[in-house]
Amino acid sequence: MDRQADLLAVATSLRITPLVDPQSFTRDTMVLLCLDPATGIRIDFIFSFTPYERQAIDRAARISISHAQVRFATPEDLIVHKMLAARPRDHEDVTGILLKQPHLDLAYVRHWLVEFAAATSQPLVKQFETLVKSLQ
């Protein structure tokens, strides 16, 4: 988070406004939630420190929007993030992604869920497999 001040300066120059207290919320979650008032689009800036996060950023799809390159998480990485958040809504989102994306790299998803499950003692793999099986 040593670049938080830089990010806030850029956000301010672009007239993007934080939706949370940048100091406490970002310190606790490693996410800075913002809003572009001109478009109403919410922007989540995620501070990355782990090998997984670096890999997810490298894997992000680059899409042109109004002459700008914007990076979006792959469906696989979105599933990993949603499984980590583990709210009922996140599990619903994972189900939707699984239904709409038939060619997912589930081995990649399972690999990272195993890693995070070991680190957090959460039943991430079991929860994911339950979602997958519910669709069969």
UniProtKB/TrEMBL annotation:
Matching Pfam families: DUF2204
InterPro entries reported for this sequence: DUF2204
Official protein name in the record: Uncharacterized protein
Organism per entry: Nitrospira moscoviensis
